[in-house]
Design goal:
binds adenosine-5'-triphosphate, alpha/beta, single chain, 6-stranded parallel β-sheet
Length: about 775
């Protein structure tokens, strides 16, 4: 492998004794290496970290890189590149040939090979496989296997050299080889732009550079095709639109591919290329809107599904009078007097096939959901929930995330599940798979609707039986979904469904100024954030003072008897002095400091300690633990200690106990401080929210609104008041979507234009239409986040 890295001067050769940690996703390894030769001061056993596509224990490698300081374990070697060292001694070659790399070759055979061919056996075999015929007792198939394995390894080396020359780091190289295997060199040569769509994290600019190196001209049409696809995909995924206007595509593609001096593609050519790609079924163009097929399909068909549900003849005969009576009974049961809008929300939920309830915090959404369930029981004479067989209970409560569904289950008292679980969207479901579930329910209530994106919405709707009533509940002013679309807002604004907006704040009466603040933010009322209240305060601080300030606040809260479960710090970015990573380190020191009694395990840059507050980062549907769920590390077992065979971390998620092996630890992070996105759907007694100018890029009104509404008892905002006001004046990018229009079209009898659209895309199969792309630059689809 070429050693052209800038770290050439530092290297280390040695046998890998143990792979201590391996992330399957990123190929990040932590290795224990027995140093054989080096120009560093390392001797004996040394920790080497880096991104390697493949490293095996008991084999020898040459690592080049640099010496780094780990916060806990001191100096270690961070490799930037590595090379499999062919063994140079007889014993080395024998060990290698009898290792797992060569299946079915035992030590005896390996010894015979070396006895016959000498220390250079590997080179001799690579040159001429017939050399192996001289070795006694080797079958033809074994000769072939040994020869091909040696060649294979040489080939991987060559690919690594090329990727390294191009400028890919070890991590990316490992991912590329994992995806293309031995086709890697051919792809780099012939269609480098495939990398943009195939390999998460490879941007168009990189592929463009490779293309130039491979001799592809800058004005070649395939460059244009790749550029267009990249723009449609990238902008949709990063900004959440479901389509781009053709003029925006032209403008952005022009910016991407042309330079002020050299126009490789005219606007006209770009437009023509868009049509070509459309003909190839890779995008859909309707009324000058350019869509990823899956988003067009989901929006378009979702409107059809809503129409199907709304127009299915009512099978029950509930009258307004029946509902009125039920509401009166509820009022006396719950000792409550519903306001007019609340009553009408209950009426719509029971009388309409599909209805919507939206409202800010404390306006009674949960109260109304409970009311609807009770009234439904009353009107349909349902048995007690426990008297139904599992799955036969006709009311289903669902929410888009694990946490939201847990909360909903608790507040409603009848249990709830995620939407994914209800429709069977499992871990093994391919991302382009349309789900067909056998769903049976008479009433489905979906909470936290603002978090539902276009894909999930359609996958859900297509599985809802026609007789089922649907009630969508949410807060339309919260952050929109992670994935594309503004489903909840579009449903509300389409005017085709009955919407009740709850606007009377009840919790405020209990002395909460937090909820009032949230509503003032929503309504755009002038606010003085520095005003002091019993339950909220603002503490001015510069960005470099934030960490210390939070340290102080938390220390004081702990003295008052609050613990880590009560206190949640919310920040919008990860890096920097006031970022999530730094704040987590500080908070861990206060809330769960180092202690001889507590075991610890280091994973990457994180020290996990018994008693730590942690958050799960991807869905584990089979365990009922989801991205964003919070837990506490109850125990850590270290390898060889008390007979443990592996390092293990046990986390308690409110009674669900999960064991993580080292390789799973990438799924876990500290949760003393989390992002506001991750906190959506949860509430905490104390919320501390730093708001500083260095967050500017991320600070917009609905992020602040969502953050503030997480606080139940006490809210402390610290930082720069101007940054706070500034955030309130920023609405974020408005997402372009067409669900609203499709709904209106569908519900107006003369849906000619829309049907016309469908006839134009009729030839596209569902399979072509439904391809959910991974998020650009992220090794996950949006579904890993739900
Ligand atoms: N009509 C009413 N009269 C008196 N109190 C009410 C009424 N409606 C709701 N409340 C009370 O207001 C409080 C907030 O209601 P609820 O929790 O249902 O609101 P929410 O919209 O679900 O809030 P959040 O979104 O913050 O969870 C509760 O204590 C509830 O009992």
């Amino acid at each position: 492998m070429s050693q052209s890295s800038i770290y050439d001067d530092l290297y280390l050769t040695g046998e890998v004794e143990r792979v201590i940690f391996l992330s399957e996703k990123t190929r990040f390894h932590v290795l224990k290496v027995l140093v054989d030769e080096t120009n560093t001061k390392f001797t004996g056993e040394t920790i080497v970290t880096g991104y390697f596509h493949d490293v095996s224990e008991s084999e020898t490698y040459r690592f080049t890189g640099k010496v780094t300081e780990h916060q806990r374990y001191g100096e270690q070697f961070s490799a930037v590149s590595f090379k499999h060292e062919m063994p140079k001694t007889n014993t080395g070659v024998i060990n290698y040939l009898s290792s797992d790399v060569f299946h079915g070759i035992g030590r005896k055979t390996a010894e015979r090979i070396v006895d016959t061919l000498g220390t250079n056996a590997l080179e001799i075999i690579a040159d001429n496989k017939n050399a192996l015929k001289e070795v006694e007792g080797l079958s033809k198939s074994k000769i072939e296997m040994i020869y091909h394995t040696i060649l294979e390894n040489q080939k991987t080396e060559r690919i690594m050299i090329r990727l390294n020359d191009i400028g890919f780091g070890a991590s990316m190289s490992a991912r590329i080889i994992k995806y293309y295997g031995e086709d890697t060199l051919r792809i780099l040569e012939e269609s480098p732009y495939s990398l943009v769509t195939d390999i998460d994290g490879v941007g168009f600019k990189t592929a463009d550079k490779i293309a130039v190196q491979s001799g592809i001209e800058l004005n070649e049409i395939r460059r244009l095709y790749a550029g267009i696809l990249y723009i449609v995909d990238d902008v949709t995924m990063s900004e959440g639109h479901t389509f781009l206007h053709i003029n925006d595509v032209i403008m952005k593609v022009d910016e991407l591919l042309n330079t002020p001096q050299l126009v490789y593609f005219s606007d006209e050519q770009i437009k023509e290329a868009v049509s070509d790609i459309e003909a190839e079924e890779k995008i859909v163009v309707v009324d000058n809107h350019v869509y990823l097929p899956t988003l067009f399909y989901s929006e378009y068909k979702a409107a059809d599904e809503i129409f199907r549900l709304v127009n299915h003849p009512e099978e029950d005969d509930i009258t307004d009078e029946n509902v009125d009576t039920a509401v009166e009974e509820l009022e006396s049961l719950f000792k409550i007097e519903y306001n007019t809008r609340q009553k009408s929300a209950i009426h719509h939920a029971l009388n309409e096939k599909v209805s919507i309830i939206t409202g800010g915090p404390g306006t009674g959404k949960t109260t109304i959901v409970k009311g609807i369930i009770n009234a439904y029981h009353e009107l349909f004479d349902l048995k007690d929930m426990d008297d139904y067989e599992e799955d036969e209970y006709p009311i289903k409560l669902i929410a888009p995330t694990g946490r939201a569904s847990k909360r909903l289950g608790e507040t409603s008292g009848i249990g709830a599940s995620t939407i994914h679980r209800l429709i069977g969207w499992g871990q093994d479901t391919e991302k382009d798979e349309l789900i067909d579930a056998e769903l049976d329910a008479d009433l489905i209530i979906i909470d936290e609707m603002s978090m539902v994106d276009t894909w999930l919405f359609y996958q859900f709707l297509r599985n809802v039986p026609s007789h089922t009533k649907l009630v969508f509940v949410g807060d339309k002013d919260q952050l929109p979904s992670v994935g594309p679309g503004t489903v909840f807002k579009d449903l509300i604004e389409s005017d085709v469904l009955k919407v009740t907006e709850l606007d009377t704040i009840y919790r405020q009466g209990e002395g909460s100024s937090i909820i009032r603040l949230a509503h003032e933010i929503k309504e755009g009322t002038q606010i003085d954030i520095t005003e002091k209240h019993r339950d909220r305060s603002f503490i001015p601080a510069r960005v470099d003072q934030i960490a210390e300030l939070i340290d102080n606040i938390v220390q004081r809260a702990v003295k008052k008897g609050y613990d880590m479960r009560d206190i949640q710090v919310l920040a919008p970015i990860y890096r920097g002095n006031a970022g999530i990573i730094k704040l987590n380190q500080i908070l861990q020191n206060i809330l769960n400091p180092e202690n001889d009694e507590k075991n610890e395990l280091v994973s990457g840059e994180t020290i996990f300690r018994e008693g730590d507050k942690v958050i799960q980062l991807v869905n584990r549907r089979e365990d009922n633990v989801f991205n964003g769920d919070g837990g506490i590390i109850e125990s850590i077992f270290l390898k060889d200690e008390n007979g443990a065979e592996k390092d293990m971390v046990n986390v308690d998620y409110d009674g669900i106990h999960i064991t993580y092996e080292r390789k799973d630890l990438m799924e876990l992070s500290h949760a003393y401080c989390t992002s506001i996105h991750k906190a959506q759907g949860s509430e905490y007694p104390i919320v501390i929210m730093p708001v500083v100018n260095s967050y500017r890029r991320m600070l917009i009104k609905n992020i602040v609104y969502t953050g503030i509404t997480r606080a139940k008892e006490s809210l402390i905002i610290c930082g720069d008041q101007n940054a706070f006001y500034d955030a309130l004046s920023r609405e974020g990018i408005k997402r372009d979507t067409t669900l609203k229009q499709f709904l209106r079209d569908k519900f107006q009898v003369e849906r000619e234009s829309a049907d016309d659209i469908l006839s134009r895309i009729e030839h596209l199969t569902e399979a072509v239409m439904f391809k959910i792309p991974a998020m650009i630059g992220v090794d996950k689809t949006p579904y890993d986040f739900n």
